[in-house]
Amino acid sequence: MGLRRLKAARTVACVCILVLFRALGLTQEPDPAAVIHNVDAAVAARFENILGFTDVEHYAVYRGDDQVHPAAEMTARDTYKKGVGKTYTVMSQSGSSILLHFGLKPLLENEQTINQPGNVEKSWFNSANYMMKLNSAAVQNLNGRNCIALDIKPKEEASNLIIGTMWVDARDGTLVQIEGVASKNPSAFSGTIRMMRQYTNINGYSMAVHARAESDSALFGRTVVMIDYSDYKLEIKTGK
Question: What is the pTM of this model?
Fold first, then answer.
């Protein structure tokens, strides 16, 4: 009797798992073309419908092996307007004046340049800018979300374009996380830059919540920059 009950329990468990997988659409390998189409659609919808936003960004720079005590910190309010770009207002800063002036200030200036009209489209994670293919372990759970992993490689080299992996929500193709190395180093002295950025879903659109960039060069040693994004306020197109 015990053996029969055990077999029956296993059968029920298998049926439940199958039903769950069917509900999540994970019973078979995702269709690459459909996944990439969803990614492109999500990127286009974000650009079309977000007219502007503000958020607060906290930057922390760590040097060498010390990943506890920042050598420099800055908090800035980011204001984005579609068709205009980004502007930053520094709210506070502390630590090394050299890192603030030659590290974080150029970082903000670079973000402004990237987000200018005509430039911003070149940084999108879509099939126009990247070659994409399903990762060998395509279906994954990441941060409690059912995701599809894609191996990505930019069609052109740039310091803000990544060679690595992109995770998107299995339902709608919105970004969940990216991780990899910069396809082009910003200078001959920076060394390889490893980058990671995590996203959350706000009103149906992917917005960055945490980022990390690490470089290690013979000249400057190890440098890690952490960015935390908070207090988002989105202006969304009405009647979409």
Answer: 0.83
